[in-house]
Amino acid sequence: MKIPFLLQRRIALKRIVQYVVVGLFTLSTPLTGSLIQTTQAQTKPGGFNSKVINLAYQTSGDIVKAKKVVEPRFKALGVTVNWVGPFPAGPQLIEAMNAGKVDIGTVGETPPIFSQAAGITEVIYIAARRPSKGLNQGIVVRANSPIKKVSDLKGKKVAFQRGSNAHYLLARALKEVDLKITDVQVVGLTPSEARDVFIQNKVEVWVGSDPFLALVEKSIPIRNLRNAGGINTLGGFYIASRQFVSQNPELVRVFLEEADKVGEWADKNPDLAAKALAPEVKLDQSVLETVSRRAVRQLRSLTPSIIAEQQRVADFYFQEKITPRKVDIRDAVPSDELLRAITPERLGQF
Question: Do residues 299 and 347 lie in contact, with contact meaning Cβ atoms separated by under 8 Å?
Fold first, then answer.
């Protein structure tokens, strides 16, 4: 029996979406743009309603959590801080945020794009991180591997976390040598799992980032085919639940202010930052010092240029047929009125 064309199209789209977001996101019914705008327009910046703030952290470590810088500020406001995690990577963090378990978290540039492509409207951007030099990420092989350059990756097994900044690094690096993601065999795993199969020599290529990259560098001889220099230009973002931001702009502003302060301290004192993270990350001090020296933790406000650059990343994913539909980054950015309410002065004008 022949399946009608429209039904075929729906089935195909469903399969594409499932391929992109399988194991990463809980799909939700997208709101229309007009409804989003109406919700933003009705928001009255200032004040807060919540008595608990749920902050996410990843296995890579979080200097805000380690230094306990937000707890005193929120305690003075009668708000309890609840740290949720650790999450293996950004996609899992966003899944928890979409499920209402997390209010604020930090991720790379890719996870929010994939969440929008999956129809998730609850996750919005609230601030950007300053970019690093890209030394904290890499496409790596063993030092004795016959794979000498990115163009040699064609047909090879490559392990990485789908929907993470590793996905973007690999896709862009392949594009530079006229290859696509479909030209390699993707082995989709969490960052720690991808690291493990690489160390166990079960895959030839691993796309990883700190702290796992710094740990592997000190564990076995490797060759970094391509780091994220010139690719990781955004530095990532702080994201939050749309409802939480609308109802608690003052709490968001307080959090971002303290996160930027401790980020500035960590950037100026990488050795002390490594020492602060050691009890939580449980890695050798020398590894954490390498991680801290390569990291940039200070924040910056969501300027039009940053939003436009994130849109270019989203457009790249769509053009390469990695995401199933084109997304508008502005749909996941608070209104100007709300941005003014949540953005601390120290982050600069947006």
Answer: yes
| Overall size of the chain counted in residues | 350
Q: Is the peptide bond before 324 cis (omega within 30 degrees of 0)?
A: no
Alpha-carbon distance 97 to 103, whole Å?
6
- In a 13 Å sphere around the CA of 85, the CA atoms on its Cβ side amount to 28
DSSP annotation of 77: T
pLDDT given at position 204: 95
Residue with tokens 């392949």: 174
Q: What is the DSSP secondary-structure string of 114-164?
A: HHHHTT--SEEEEEEEPP--STTEEEEEETT-S--SGGGGTT-EEEE-TTS
Distance in angstroms (rounded) separating the CA atoms of residues 102 and 85: 9
Q: Which residues of 82-99 are buried (b: 16+ CB within 10 A; e: fewer)?
A: ebbbbbbbbbbbbbbbbe
154-174 per-position pLDDT tens digit: 999 999 999 989 999 999 999
Q: Is 245 left (phi over 0), alpha (psi -120 to 50) or beta?
A: alpha
Residue 80 is predicted with a pLDDT of 97
CB 133 within 8 A of CB 229: yes
Segment 176-199 shows an average pLDDT of: 95
Q: Report the b/e string of 223-253 with b at 16+ CB within 10 A.
A: eebbbbeebbebbbbbbbbbebbbbbbbbbb
Rounded-to-integer distance, Cα 61 and Cα 192, Å: 13
Set out the domains of the chain in order of their start, with CATH numbers. 5-131+234-347 (3.40.190.10), 137-227 (3.40.190.10)
Q: What is the chain's mean pLDDT, rounded? A: 87
pLDDT at 19: 39
Instruction: Provide CB contacts within 8 A for 180, sequence distance 6+.
Output: 171, 174, 320
When pLDDT is cut at 50, 70 and 90, the band that residue 281 belongs to is confident
Q: Is 308 exposed, middle or buried (0-12, 13-18, 19+ CB in 10 A)?
A: exposed
C-beta of residue 104 within 8 angstroms of C-beta of residue 126: yes
- Looking at this protein, which amino acid is placed at residue 265? W
Instruction: Give just the sign of the alpha carbon dihedral 72, 67, 58, 128.
Output: positive
